[in-house]
């Protein structure tokens, strides 16, 4: 496949774009990337490609736009079947999608409540966030990855979100490693993968973005 057939409307610090970058890398698929200014004026291409949400990521495959990161990852798995990201068993596929949905609803928004809050609200948000991670830690169990021995769909949806954890820890005054040691071991294992490391920003860079977001939201 030539790069011209695949264009990713991207943002370096977006964990949702990170999901798509990792999925494409796992498949060995080449693509072009166009960085979007998500906090400023959005490009006409982005607005026309995702008129409903007007957000990245958008993957244009032969000019046809695909939106929403978890949906894009599933599309990538269907379009380039090897190596598979989702399990072959129908039951295990449903379980992977269940935990993917849990991650979508709980992790990023839960963490964002920490840096958006003040005073006692921070403690409430922190407690809820840690409880979410403990639930994920429970389903991970003693496995290397959420799907077992192989890095896959659930890992791809979750690992980019962890680049924002440093900011949550700073504003919430806690350490994920102390609260959820097995989860932290999984994070370290994922970050040993070249495709993951290359696709994700440094947590310190994300922290600087969160500082800017706090000012925009009037938290500071």
Q: What would you say this structure looks like, in words?
A:
Helix 1 (15-27) links the parallel strand 1 (6-10) and strand 2 (32-35). The model has no long low-confidence stretch (mean pLDDT 96). The chain has helices spanning 15-27, 44-49, 69-79, 90-116, 120-140, 153-158, 165-172, 176-179, 181-190, 194-199, 203-216, and strands spanning 6-10, 32-35, 58-61, 64-67. The protein contains eleven helices and four strands; from the N terminus they run E-H-E-H-E-E-H-H-H-H-H-H-H-H-H. It is an alpha+beta fold. The termini are far apart.
Shape: globular
Q: Determine the fraction of residues in helical runs and give it as a percent range.
A: 55-70%
Please give the order of strands in the largest beta sheet. 2-1-3-4
Could you give a short account of the major beta sheet? Answer: 4 strands, mixed
End-to-end distance: 47 Å
In round numbers, the mean pLDDT is 96
| Secondary structure: number of strands | 4
> What is the N-to-C succession of helices and strands?
EHEHEEHHHHHHHHH
Strand content: 5-15%
How many H/I helical runs? 11
Low-confidence stretches: none
Structural class: alpha+beta
Q: Rg to the nearest angstrom?
A: 17 Å
